[in-house]
Amino acid sequence: MTSLKVNGETYQVAATPDMPLLWVLRDHLKLTGTKFGCGEGLCGACTVLIDGAAERSCSITLAEVGERQVTTIEGIPANHPVKQAWLAEEVSQCGYCQPGQVVAAVALLKQNRLPSDEQINQAMSGNLCRCGTYQRIRKAIHAASSKMAKGGIIHE
Amino acid sequence: MSDQQVSRRDFLKSSATLTGALVLACYVPGLAPCCSAAEAGFAPNAFVRLSADGSVTVIVGKSEMGQGTFTALAMLVAEELDCDWDRVRVEAAPVAPAYNHTTFGLQVTGGSSSVWSEWQRLSEAGAAARQMLVLAAAQAWQVQPEQCRTERGSVLGPAGRRSSYQDLVERAARLPVPTKVRLKDPRDYRLVGRPTHRLDSPAKVAGSAVFGIDVHTPGMLVAVLMRPPVFGATLKDFQDSKALQVPGVRRVVAVPAGIAVLADGFWPAKLGRERLQATWDLGPGGALSTPRMREEYAGRAATPGTVAAKRGTAGAALARAEKVLRAEYEVPYLAHAPMEPLNCFVDLKADHCHIRTGSQFQTVDRDAAAKAAGLRPEQVTLETTFLGGGFGRRANPASDFVVEAVQVAKAAGQPVKVIWTREDDLKGGYYRPMWYDRISAGISGGRLTSWQHTIVGQSIIAGTSFEAALVKDGIDDTSVEGAADLPYAVDHLLVDLHTMKNPVPTLWWRSVGHSHTAFVVESFLDEVAAALGKDPLICRRELLKNKPRHLGVLNAAARLADWGSPLPAGHGRGIAVHASFKSYVAQVAEVSLDPAGALRVHRVFCAVDCGSVVNPDTIRAQMESGIVFGLSAALYGAITLKDGRVEQTNFDSYPVVRLDAMPKVEVEIVKSTEKPGGIGETAVPPIAPAVANALCALTGARVRALPLTPERIAAARPGRTT
Ligand code: FES
Ligand code: FES
């Protein structure tokens, strides 16, 4: 049994320490919001926050996560400005990449409240979307950013 | 207002559940009666269900794979039902003839056809329910139905009477379904035609939407398969002792599709697969190489094929033309690579099989599963989950990912979910075919007089159960669509086809034949314009004089792009127009080359005429989506084979457009009262030629092969020798 902190809870999981976090979340904890897209760190569908920073859960093992706090899409509150902006801008199509996109955007805005287009490119270009929702992703990030700036909202 | 006869009226029935739901069901001859009062709550063949709690459930037989069909189809029902949109939810339909495509006769989502094929049927379903609710209220109030009207989920009667639908449900459910319904005048629409938020967005943003890959049940095993290394190879022998040592691996079974490693979860299954040792008899597939196939295709392109379209005498007209242009174009195999890798859950019992997966092809998959399981189709149930992208890959006449999952479940004797890795997906075949085209134009007296186009490639339909119905006189229409129906005015036209056979499995890929023909036709049309000394926009206008809808989008896109206005230094602009799936799309692309010689697409202006509109925001989204999908193919996409093996493995060797390569896209929906057309695929075809034309305008390099790589661009620049 290995202990793992996810979305504010501590779980004891019966997974081997070399199992990628992605499969611990999906197969052991049934937190299926985090998606498998490539398994090689190439698509971002599996993005989660580890101590607040975006990480590819397919490319980090349970042992490597250790005591750190994991936040998945399920752990980001529904009223988070990023989730709200995603709905307002109607970003989702098939929706499969969107948990990873949302988590990556949350991480970006945590670090940088007013990202430029260039900074959005840098932070988000590892998150593929085969449905091509990129234009709306960009718009939603700007919208969430200005809402957070105006409201002085701090979401951790 | 027009009176509409309810088609299939003899089959319409209604019933009430014990919980007071009104189900308007389409009775299906041949199926056990399903519409008794007690059963209707779960009656499989119904389009709309009103519950006593006020919710309205629209049961949609189309698969939601991003194209917004759940929302658009629910809007059609809700419009005629006049219910409160906030109370509408959607449920995926089971497999039943009631949900068969109104034209194709099978339960399928494809061909960008959901809105046009369902508009009438779902409008009638909503209108009939509304009419029954009105009659129920009128009877309760002892007034004439004509004295009543509806508004947002309530019936309003004389003297201020008002009753909500939910209070009328029980009474309405006892009434006969009307044989005639009155549909609204489109001018009275309050929902259809307005930008409307998607019903599936909240679950998708929350992370709670269930895709096939998310399905789990207690006791289920996850399987990862080792499939043949080359197409058509057969298994000789395998060793599974090392695989079985992986903690969590439960068993290994050989099935016709390959060797399945079954484990407690995906990770041990995948580790187990890595430890399998297998020997294969490669067969002729082991010798396949795409460069060699290309040579063969090119040779065939120089010979006459089976005629697909003919007008006048193109050959003779070319022979006497003052000027003849000849060019050869080619496009590679492409993988669909939906974001959600293929997967399928199967729970197989002695007399029943339950499948949960993201399918676009329910009837075919259900029947194929039954055959693989040794059951009758009615013993198989298929639950359609959300699809993490389809693009055609999840509508396979061979039902590959469903059949193999049934094989594995059968061998394992346990519920199983098969998951493909990305590598499995890219190497697994069912590609957009590779094509080679030879095309010629004759010009005399300053005008285009003849057009001859020879197409070489595999048929998607040949060899499937649809061949008899869909391949006519040796022509698979999906091989020549977009070319045989050339919209440009030319006196002499000949389009012919060589259908090639080889072991690489092919499949429809978002926009099917158009993904290839639009690139060839629209690129070559620019070559014709250049030979005529005409601006590409003006040349198209002249040749499309009698094609008002082509012209409409062409002019709209040109206006949007301010065609002819000066561009920043180092930028070029190109245009293309293409009709597909009953819709018309024109795009103007603005490009530059980066210091490494790679294309950057800065802006795309897109005009679409898809006839009557349900959800304009979805149309915009689908235009953006199609442009990105087509751009990935135009800039990067190619599946190649060497010694029978697919050379691409993952998104590093099969790149797709990322956010930093996303152009600014502007969309204009051309106003139209024509019948509705498709939107899911129609933005794909024009983008590759618009970009190739822009590149040529910028550099003079006419690149006639996709993808438009820096190497090809450099080789095609004027002054270079190749
Ligand atoms: S699944 Fe982790 S980056 Fe693609
Ligand atoms: S919404 Fe489908 S992959 Fe992004």
From TrEMBL, chain A:
Keywords from the named record: 2Fe-2S, Iron, Iron-sulfur, Metal-binding, Oxidoreductase
Q: Could you tell me which InterPro entries the record lists for this protein?
A: 2Fe-2S-bd, 2Fe-2S-bd_dom_sf, 2Fe-2S_ferredoxin-like_sf, 2Fe-2S_ferredoxin-type, 2Fe2S_fd_BS, Beta-grasp_dom_sf, Diverse_Oxidoreductases
Segments forming domain 2Fe-2S ferredoxin-type: 1-76
Which Pfam family is one of this chain's hits? Fer2_2
GO-annotated molecular function: 2 iron, 2 sulfur cluster binding; metal ion binding; oxidoreductase activity
SUPFAM superfamilies for this protein: 2Fe-2S ferredoxin-like, CO dehydrogenase ISP C-domain like
Asked whether the keyword Iron-sulfur is assigned, the reply is yes
Cite the PROSITE patterns for this sequence. Answer: 2FE2S_FER_1, 2FE2S_FER_2
Q: What's the protein here called?
A: (2Fe-2S)-binding protein
From what organism does this protein derive? Answer: Geomonas silvestris
Automatic annotation (TrEMBL), chain B:
Q: Where is the Aldehyde oxidase/xanthine dehydrogenase a/b hammerhead domain?
A: 206-284
What the entry lists under NCBIfam families is as follows: TAT_signal_seq (TIGR01409)
Q: Does the keyword Iron-sulfur apply?
A: yes
Where is it localised? Cell envelope
Give the source's domain of life in one word.
Answer: Bacteria
Kindly give the SUPFAM superfamilies that the UniProt entry links to this protein.
Molybdenum cofactor-binding domain
Name of this chain's protein = Aldehyde oxidase
List the coiled-coil residues: none
* Short name of any one Pfam family annotated for the protein: MoCoBD_1
Report the GO molecular function annotations.
Answer: iron-sulfur cluster binding; oxidoreductase activity
Oligomer and partners: Heterodimer of a large and a small subunit.
Q: Which UniProt keywords apply?
A: Iron, Iron-sulfur, Metal-binding
